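Schema walk-through. Below, the input block comes first and the output block second. Nothing else is stored per chain. Lengths vary across the set, and this one has 69 residues.
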Amino acid sequence: MRKEYDFSKAKKNPYASQLKKQITIRLDGDAIDYFKSISEKVGIPYQSLINLYLRDCAAEHRTLNLSWK
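--- output ---
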């Protein structure tokens, strides 16, 4: 491994902004605990598990059966 690297000609990844988008979302503690417990078993960060689950729901066009009481 080199002591120093020359990044003077480096280019920024043009696709980096399209990879992930940071948002704020409020989740119940129970939901977070659920994904954290799974993350410990499988070794994947819980944020990534939530993202994978939501992506799967979107890909399968799942809808919720909601009824307000």
